[in-house]
Amino acid sequence: MVYNRTFLLTVLSVAAFSFLSSCGNETPKTEAKPPADNELSEQEKADGWKLLFDGKSLAGWHKYGGAPVGKMWMVDDGAIHLEAKRAEGEWQASDGGDILTNDDYENFELRLDWKIDTCGNSGIIYHIVEDTAKYGYPWMTGPEMQVLDNACHPDGKLVKHRAGDLYDLIECSTVTVKPALEWNSVRLVSRSGMVEHWLNGTKVVEIQMLENGKPTQQWLDLIKGSKFPGLPAPDFGLATKGKISLQDHGNKVWYKNIKIRTY
Predict the structure, then answer these.
(1) Measured distance CA(78)–CA(255) in Å, rounded
(2) Which of 71, 78, 126, 177 could form a disulfide with 163 if both were Cys (CB 3.0 to 4.6 A apart)?
(3) Owning domain of residue 106
(4) Which has more pLDDT, 191 or 88?
(5) Residue 160 lies in a domain
């Protein structure tokens, strides 16, 4: 069959018009934008997340022992910031100290972002029993996810003392921490006695601490092989729930996007 030139042009024009018209009728696909700092997305709200820091105040936090948060902890450009000015011979800020959530948590997922000053040290401590008559500091009762400048701080040379480690107990399976003064993302999960540390999207620590409310033998052996049995902390790591702390270790540190959901 032979088609003349005019007929072919007409057919092609109709086809092109139909294609363009169908494209114009498609609804553009849009990807959900991540929420702004210190805010929850609609999906996060639906999934039960709540903010532990509103980006403007230190409401919901207190100093270990129940006092108001010290003045060296402040809100700085949408982050909780420890200025960390220390007196001679002290290892914590003069008007700082470890700060804790007002509420206790047992089965939870915590997310936050942190950055540390050059050569800095801090930590995220959880399952804290706030008993100042028995424990001088939160780290005497609760396990810690280390916050550290691995490249400069002396602890960066110690196994189990590096960023993301379960401090003095389990080292990270892989090193994922970013350099000092860069933001790192944390996911910390505690569920039915199983604890996971995630740093920058990678699971770096996993341990079954408790089973049916009692410490596992593996967990007891880890504690026995750490520095904690030699300290005044007879119940270290044995609580099934507790408060969460941001540690004052005498160095500048920043935390933001602190959010939690419970199971």
Answers:
(1) 9
(2) 177
(3) 37-262
(4) 191
(5) yes
In a domain, residue 14? The reply is no
Helix (H) or strand (E) holding 8: helix 5-24
**Which position has the token pair 């709540």?**
50
Q: How far is the first Cα of the chain from the last one, in angstroms, to the nearest whole number?
A: 72
Q: Does the residue 30 lie in any domain?
A: no
- β-partners of residue 112 are 186
Residue 10 lies in a domain: no
**Cβ proximity of 121 and 153 under 8 Å:** yes
Query: 217 is written with which tokens?
Result: 């033998």
Cα separation, 131 vs 129, in Å, equals 6
Return mean pLDDT, the chain: 90
E strand residue ranges, the chain: 50-51, 61-63, 73-76, 79-82, 99-101, 108-116, 121-128, 144-148, 184-191, 194-199, 202-208, 210-211, 214-215, 243-246, 253-262
Which tokens go with 137?
Answer: 């500091």
Number of domain units in the chain: 1
pLDDT digit string (tens) for 45-97?
999 999 999 999 999 999 999 999 999 999 999 999 999 888 888 999 999 99
CA separation for the pair 263, 245 (Å, rounded): 20
Distance, CA of 137 to CA of 135 (rounded, Å): 6
Please state, as a whole number, how many other Cβ atoms lie within 10 Å of the Cβ of residue 195: 21
DSSP-based three-state secondary structure for 212 = coil
Indicate the residue type of 238. L
> Which letter does DSSP use for residue 140 in this model?
G
SS3 label, residue 103: coil
Q: What is the DSSP string of 97-152?
A: --EEESS-BSSEEEEEEEEE-TT-EEEEEEEE---TTT-SSGGGTS-EEEEE-TTT
- DSSP letter (8 states) at residue 55: S
